[in-house]
Structure formats: structure tokens, C-alpha cells
Amino acid sequence: EITLIKDSQVSKLHKAAGRLQVTSMATEEQLFALYVQHVEKAEKEIERLHGEFAVLSNPEQLISDGFASEELEKLRTDNQKLKFQLNHLKRHLAEEQKRVRDCALDVRGVIEDIFTLAIHEAFPELPSPAILVVPSAKFADYQCNSAMSIAQLLGSASGKKVNPQEVAKAIINHLPETSFFEKTELAGPGFINIFLKKEFVSKELSFLLTHGVKPPKVQKKRVVIDYSSPNIAKEMHVGHLRSTIIGESLSRLFEWVGHDVLRVNHLGDWGTQFGMLIAHLIEKYPNLLNERPPIQDLQAFYQESKVRFDSDEVFKRKAYDCVVKLQSKDPFHYQ
């Protein structure tokens, strides 16, 4: 700005000098005096602009001189903070866009997050409403069924009946702009049908074909899977096998996603049932340490001990005593 002012003054001087030459009324001393006069005026203008610039760059001085209020300074400070946050978000967004995604997108989780925001905006008075999003192959891609339960919560709080359709309309009106949804429709008593954008579905299918099946990104947790935990004093059956297979399948899925899985299959070999077996075994085969008991059917042998345990109080006390000795690792009972 200062340079422009100088150039402008010099241009005016040249024009003035030209007029003097044309009229032949100016001497060299007059021309020099004219230059000096304009230079001094330009220097004063520069000094004035420097002073104004120094004042503007010192907010505290502006406030003390009464040119600006403290509210204005607060807004200026908040604006600087927002600019810093905006630049930080822009850098973070640029880094995320450059990063190659190595995990599948949890589409249902994304939809639940979007509807969580909408429901919180529509009904901030509800602390933790249920977010019910399910696949819907018949009517749409997904369906949100939260309106009915939210209507019940609102009705209980106000004492008046609330129409679930009105709740669903409020949720739809508060949905944020998103690149995932093609449209949403209200259906039935308060269902919200969700249609995904074809471009989004195409993009996810391309990722699947290019990278294969990848687990979604989740927060790592410790997962405990309890297997069949059979009572080995009794005969095992297909139910033990079924629950063990289910438990192992779940364990592998959780590990594939990224969780820390602890498999537990507790064998019930310390309780009352073994006290019954040991007491019955000692009484029926007192020489069991030297001769192997000829037990062909362990299930039948267990049933015999159970009948005696339920009907004979003396035998019951012996069974409990055997349990205590087993748990204390008495050599005879433990081995």
C-alpha cells in the first residue's frame, strides 16, 4: 500500500513537471522545491499509516483507547481458536483421505450412529433411548424401529399418549446430511425405511472385491467364551458337542475381528457328584487299590450312587466327607 502511494505521488509530479515544461514558467529551483514538497507529504502519510497499523495490531491498546470493546476482543480470540481447530481438522481429513482403508465398514454401525445423532437432536430430554436398526430385505435396505419405544418413553414421562408416527417424523427431520442414504421413508405405525445410495454400495462392493473380506474396525476388548463345561461324572451327549462347536466358532470370529478371547471349559470334577462316586466306589469295591473295579457302565454306577445319596443320610455324610478330602488333595481320594 505504501509503494502504491509513492508511485502515485511520483506520477503526479511527472505530470506537474510536464505542465511546467509546456508552459515554460518553472525554473529548476521551482521543480526541485515541488519535488521536496511532495516527498515530505508522502513521508508524513507513510508515518501516519505506520501508526495506524501499529495500533490495529495491538488489540490491548485499542481496548484501552476505547476503539474496541472487550467483547470484540473475546470474539477475535475465539475466532483464532476456531481457525486453528479448522486447520487441524483439514489436516486430519487430508491425512485420512490419503490413508488406505484396511478394514471393512460396519454399515449397520454407521447407520446406528447417524440415527443416534438424530434422536438426540429430536429428543434431548431422553437420556439413553434404544437405537433399533435392523436389515430389511423386503421393504428397504435397513429399517429403524426406535420410534415405538421412544413414544412409550415420552408417554410415560408426560402422562399422555404419543403417536409413534410423529416421533418417526421428528427423527427423519433431524437426520444429518450424509453420503450414505438415498432416502428415508415413514412406513406403518412408525417404522423408518432406509435406502442406501447406489454409489456407496458400489464403493463398498469394490472394496470387498479388491481387498477380500476384512473385519470391521472395533475397540479391542477381552471376551470370555464359556464352553459346554460337562459334568464328567455323567455320560456326555450331543448337547455338549453342540455348545462346544458354537463356542469355538464364536471364539474364532471374535479373534478375527481383533478381540482378546479367553476360552473356558470347566470340567465339573470337584463337586458333590464325585463325592458320591468315591464313597460308593469305596463301599462297593473296598480292595480297589489292588484290583481294578469291573465297572462297565459309568452312567449306571453314577445313578446307583445318586439313589443312595438321596435316600441314605449316612451315605450322604460320607459323600460330603469324600468331597472335603478330594478338595484338600488327600492322596487316597485325589489320586
From TrEMBL:
Keyword Aminoacyl-tRNA synthetase in annotation = yes
Domain of life of the organism in this record?
A: Eukaryota
Ranges in a coiled coil: 72-99
Give the enzyme's main class according to its UniProt record, as a single word.
ligase
Question: What are the protein's UniProt keywords?
Answer: Aminoacyl-tRNA synthetase, ATP-binding, Coiled coil, Ligase, Nucleotide-binding, Protein biosynthesis
Q: What is its EC number?
A: 6.1.1.19
**Gene Ontology cellular component?**
cytoplasm
GO MF terms here are: arginine-tRNA ligase activity; ATP binding
Which Pfam family would be a valid example here?
Answer: Arg_tRNA_synt_N
Q: Which family does it belong to?
A: Belongs to the class-I aminoacyl-tRNA synthetase family.
In its UniProt entry, what is this protein called?
A: arginine--tRNA ligase
